[in-house]
């Protein structure tokens, strides 16, 4: 099977490429230089350097010809900050590339596609009464992404959107997204306890994401599927015990679960900071506490069906936090995650 990927040198795309190549498939990826120093990018993967958004349709068609599967392993999530209006940026990075490339895929005979989405789409659909898509631009954008993917499917073209939760693990040379957590909780370091929401989240390791992407690419199920993905479900207090242990502060730090209304009081300062810096948040600061109060858990049967196997999630979390802390403190210089 021949696979063309956007984002093949990133944290998740690299894992997917490694898995696909191990299983005998040919992988080509377009990527923006520079590559992260020391990253285990498979030598067998053909890399076309450049900005896909600056390529002509004819150039992209040539890249796509002869491929069986297109994988979109790029885009941005809610942790990346943008000026107003944030929906323009979500459209630019998460939706517009698909609207441009899917028709080209179909024109040259690519039959299957895999898109990395978000489990916030799963939550919005599972709890429509909460109105998350109306309150949070990021939720809305991911639902729009899924809606376009579904509309593009026909008898000759299929798409699987993987609704991914929080992902842990690192790629040498690249800055983890979890530096934002260090920023969020750092001001409480001098306190005898940490205040945090009572809910929890689904999660998995980057290696498991690579397995799931490979499984989705190999699947011959026709049409459109939006698949909720997760391997482990963990409450926030347990998660933070791993985080604090990785930060050298011990795993027994006291975590006080707070009700949404209490967290909303704290978000007043966050909202003011966003306004001061001209940031349009993808998550409504005053709705985020309601989201984080939910046990956003996912049955791991979906991930296992696509080939995910057991991994050490605690070590993956710890590794992510150790590198994030070093990056936050300036002791290492790492490449930023890119949306293009």
Overview of the structural elements:
This protein has 340 residues and is α/β, with parallel strands linked by helices. It has helices at residues 11-22, 57-64, 86-108, 119-126, 132-135, 137-152, 179-186, 206-218, 236-246, 260-277, 288-292, 301-305, 313-328, and strands spanning 2-6, 26-31, 46-49, 69-72, 112-118, 158-164, 166-168, 193-197, 200-205, 224-228, 232-235, 254-258, 295-296. α2 crosses α3. The two termini are 25 Å apart.
Any chance you could write out the topology, listing elements then pairs?
Elements: E1 2-6, H1 11-22, E2 26-31, E3 46-49, H2 57-64, E4 69-72, H3 86-108, E5 112-118, H4 119-126, H5 132-135, H6 137-152, E6 158-164, E7 166-168, H7 179-186, E8 193-197, E9 200-205, H8 206-218, E10 224-228, E11 232-235, H9 236-246, E12 254-258, H10 260-277, H11 288-292, E13 295-296, H12 301-305, H13 313-328
Parallel strand pairs: 1-2, 1-4, 2-3, 4-5, 5-6, 6-10, 7-9, 8-12, 9-13
Antiparallel strand pairs: 9-11
Helix pairs in contact: 1-8, 2-3, 3-6, 7-13, 9-13
Task: Summarize this structure as a short list of keywords or feature phrases.
340 residues, alpha/beta, 13 strands
Query: Major β-sheet, in short?
Result: 7 strands, parallel
Helix content: 40-55%
Distance between the termini: 25 Å
Poorly predicted segments: none
Q: Report the mean per-residue pLDDT as an integer.
A: 94
């Amino acid at each position: 099977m021949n696979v063309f990927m956007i984002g093949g040198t990133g944290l998740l795309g690299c894992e997917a490429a490694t898995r696909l190549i191990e299983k005998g498939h040919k992988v080509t990826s377009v990527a923006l230089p520079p590559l992260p120093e020391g990253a285990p990018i498979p030598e067998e993967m053909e890399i076309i350097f450049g900005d896909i958004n600056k390529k002509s349709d004819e150039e992209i068609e040539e890249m796509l010809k002869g491929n069986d599967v297109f994988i979109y392993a790029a885009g941005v999530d809610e942790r990346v900050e943008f000026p107003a209006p944030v929906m323009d940026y979500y459209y630019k990075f998460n939706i517009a590339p698909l609207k441009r490339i899917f028709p080209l895929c179909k024109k040259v005979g690519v039959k299957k596609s895999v898109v990395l989405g978000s489990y916030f789409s799963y939550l919005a659909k599972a709890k429509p009464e909460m109105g998350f898509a109306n309150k949070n631009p990021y939720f809305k954008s991911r639902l729009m992404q899924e809606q376009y993917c579904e509309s593009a499917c026909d008898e000759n073209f299929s798409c699987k959107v993987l609704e991914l939760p929080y992902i842990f693990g690192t790629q040498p040379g690249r800055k983890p997204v979890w530096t934002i957590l260090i920023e969020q909780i750092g001001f409480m370091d001098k306190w005898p306890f940490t205040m945090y929401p009572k809910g929890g989240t689904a999660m998995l390791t980057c290696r498991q994401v690579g397995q799931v992407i490979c499984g989705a690419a190999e699947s011959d199920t026709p049409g459109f599927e939006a698949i909720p993905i997760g391997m482990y479900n963990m409450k926030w207090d347990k998660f933070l015990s791993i985080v604090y242990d990785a930060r050298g502060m011990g795993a027994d730090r006291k975590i006080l679960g707070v009700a949404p209304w209490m967290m909303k009081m704290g978000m007043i300062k966050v909202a003011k900071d966003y306004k001061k810096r001209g940031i349009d948040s993808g998550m409504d600061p005053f709705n985020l506490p309601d989201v984080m109060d939910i046990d956003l858990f996912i049955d791991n049967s979906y991930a296992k069906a696509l080939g995910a196997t057991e991994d050490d999630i605690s070590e993956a979390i710890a590794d992510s936090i150790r590198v994030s802390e070093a990056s936050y403190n300036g002791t290492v210089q790492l490449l930023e995650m890119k949306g293009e």
